[in-house]
Amino acid sequence: MEEHEMSPNDYLAVLKRRKWSLVLPAVIVMLISAAVALILPPVYKSVSTILIEEQEIPDNFVMSTVTSYAEQRLQTIHQRIMSTSRLLEIITRLDLYKDLREKATTEEVIDKMREDISLDYISAEVVDRKTGRPATATIAFTLSYEAQDSPATVQKVANILASLFLEENLQVRERQAMEATSFLGDEQKKVKKSLDEIEQKIAEFKQEHINELPEVLQVNLQSRHNVQSSKERLSEQLRALKEREGGLQSELANLSPQMGMEDIKRLEALKLELNSLETRFTDHYPDVIKTRQEIEKLTKKINTGEKGSPTAMPDNPAYINLSSQLSSVQAEIESVKRQYADLQRNEDNLNKWIEATPRVEETYNALLSERRNRQTKFDDLSQKLMEANVAYGLEKDQKGERFTLIDPARLPEKPDKPNRLAILLIGMVLGIGAGVAGAALMEFSDQSVRRAEILVRETSFPVLAAIPRISCAEDKQQHKLRWRWGVLLLLAVLLVAVLAFHFLVMDLNVLWAKLMRRMM
After folding, report:
1. Which of 71, 231, 283, 472 has its CA 20 to 30 A from that of 454?
2. Over the stretch 125-171, which tens digit does the pLDDT of each residue have?
3. Short-list 411, 418, 412, CA closest to 41
4. Which residues, including other chains, have CB under 8 Å from residue 459's CB and lie 6 or more apart?
5. Distance between CA atoms of 215 and 254, rounded to whole angstroms?
6. Residue 157 CB contacts under 8 Å (≥ 6 apart), including other chains
7. How many contiguous H segments (helices) and E segments (strands) does the chain have?
8. Each residue's pLDDT tens digit, 258-274
9. DSSP 43
């Protein structure tokens, strides 16, 4: 059959003819959507909003030892709280998922609770203090819980989860700060022990090489110079003493140890002098008389005195004086020699120390460098430990970055799921679409000819007569039945409309109550 353009009257005729094909699918789909909206159990949702606050004290004053970002720490806390033991404790305490626990395993129940818990971040554009560039930062997050339990139970679970997040954050930050302090303290003790060991090694090394250390090199050089000067002075003194010793020995050789021998020598000398005088002068010359008298005295003295013995003690004062001077000079020479020997030994020791100083200096500098490195590390660890202790006090007093509950979980006033109004509206749209589709399908699949002009156009034969519709009793009965079904369908549509209006009014009331609370 060839297609032809349909006029509005044709569409009205199709609508009148296919009204049941249009109405029945629409009403059935609407009734199904209404049934779904009414049968689906309500799911309540409670949400807590937690603000991430920065530490009160500037970072320039106190640097926190907690270096993880808020998002990373939130994920860590989330994994801790979502552990099987934590969730199972909450389920047992509040008797959650009672029906599900009767027919599912514990792991499935816990997985269901994990699906019902949601963690969402709230980000904002901020300016990075270090770079001065805009960046996206997490300033808060929401923690929600949804379930088919009572609103009070859902609110209680949401509050428990929020409190667990707050407590876990404090514990995590305090534990990290404590671990940092403990680690730095242990490292400081180890470095202190090694520093004491190197100090002991340096002390023992200095004790062993006390005269060979680099810091006494100048002293040793100066001491060697002084020793050499003293040796030169002692050499000059020894030379002078030896010359004096030689002179005293020469003088002593010309003297007799005993006085008798001196008188004999004096007597012979006087006799020779007398002979010389007698040859030149007379016997009455004063010098001759004086010499003879002296000869007589010495002769009488020699004749009346004892003869000198070589073994007798010296009694010549001049000899004794020279002997004592010679002994003193010889003793002084020995003293100078001993002093010179001591200086020579001292010089040898100084030379040995000075020669050993470069070798000792290499080892000593290595020990000092090691001590300096360990001391630097110890000072650095001490500084870091002090800062870590301050940071631990910061976390303990809750002055660092912290989570603040700014919007606690509220008692749900209406179910979050399902959205019954949306289901009804979608059902109505789908019903109308299903009705239109059914009517169109029935119309396009029907090959009947309903007007004379169409038959003429299709067959090229004239229509001689048209038989009108003849109604019988059975047709009237079917007509009444159709009206009854129409009324029932109309009532169903009205019921769906009333339900949609009811849910719409409920949503409007909730929105109005929230608006009034915010205005107050």
Report:
1. 472
2. 776 666 667 777 778 888 899 888 888 888 899 999 988 888 888 77
3. 418
4. none
5. 60
6. 46, 90, 94, 96, 145, 147, 149
7. 14, 4
8. 555 556 666 677 777 77
9. B
